[in-house]
Amino acid sequence: MRTSDFDFDLPEALIAQFPAAERTASRLLHMNGSSGELQDGVFADLGQFLQPGDLLVFNDTRVIKARLNGQKASSGKVEVLVERVLDAHRALAHVRASKSPKAGTRLWLADAIEVEVLGRHEDLFELRFLDERPFLDLLQQYGSLPLPPYITHVPDVVDDERYQTVYASQPGAVAAPTAGLHFDHALLQRLRDMGIQMAFVTLHVGAGTFQPVRVENPLEHTMHSEWYDVPRTTVDLIRATQKAGGKVTAVGTTALRALESAARAGEIVAASGDTDIFITPGYRFRVVERLLTNFHLPRTTLLMLVSAFAGLDNIRHAYQHAILQRYRFFSYGDAMLIERRE
Known about the structure:
Layout: E1 27-32, E2 38-42, E3 55-59, E4 61-63, E5 67-72, E6 77-85, E7 90-97, E8 106-109, E9 113-121, E10 124-129, H1 135-142, H2 157-162, E11 170-173, H3 185-194, E12 197-203, E13 226-230, H4 232-243, E14 248-251, H5 253-261, E15 271-275, E16 290-294, H6 301-310, H7 312-324, E17 335-339
Parallel strand pairs: 1-17, 3-12, 3-14, 4-11, 14-16
Antiparallel strand pairs: 1-2, 5-6, 5-8, 6-7, 7-10, 8-9, 9-10, 12-13, 13-15, 16-17
Helix pairs in contact: 6-7
């Protein structure tokens, strides 16, 4: 297995710069991971691929307005991207500046927020927000939405709504769990009326989700770590669903990573903490039988994950099909529903 096995050429015109007019108006490519068979559809018809008693597991993380611009006390310009919430006043963040700030440096952000650099942890800086208000409140007021690097427009009020799932409730992500962006309240209700069950996990998506694997041997890649929580109520629903013969569908790779992290010992249990689980072809899935996901960037850990789930040859074929059929790619793009390869 080489990183170049997960490369592909994508016409730039297929990178979705804006969301579809309606959340459920995206296209949906269904794949049988065992046979490789593909079926084109629309997301609004998701229910035709599900059965009463099946379980959808969503990631309820909420994207924070994590980007702030400002300057050092010495007047040098800085850009801050919060990566991890530590507590009400501290965070780990990426800091871009002409010269990396040292511990004790003061930053003045958005002409409103004073921040002290406490130290550095590899690529991230530990920051303390000196305002009495919780810094998440400050970000909401003064920060901007951290759109992915391949989306070129300045975030606006449309992004504030659409780069967020309708069920987002736990603030802490700097990237959206994009498979969930296709759901609106009406579709969720239709699925409930069909007898589809729903449960939630939390995984605060980090900026590392967009980064390509830079080594040719994926096993030499250092996986980024993210905080997750799989509650007891979700575990109980999963066990009951599988006992009754239903299928567990992860809505997004982040929900899948949370569930599989909680099952590392063999059987899924309630769990929370940091996970750096890195799923590549050959991985044995313990929980998830169906995956709803968007189309991913080349040479990334997410493309490796879906290749593990469906088979690398199947994913290559599906992506070639999607390109030929002019599917829209990445965060604001179209979706795939993958039945796990047996």
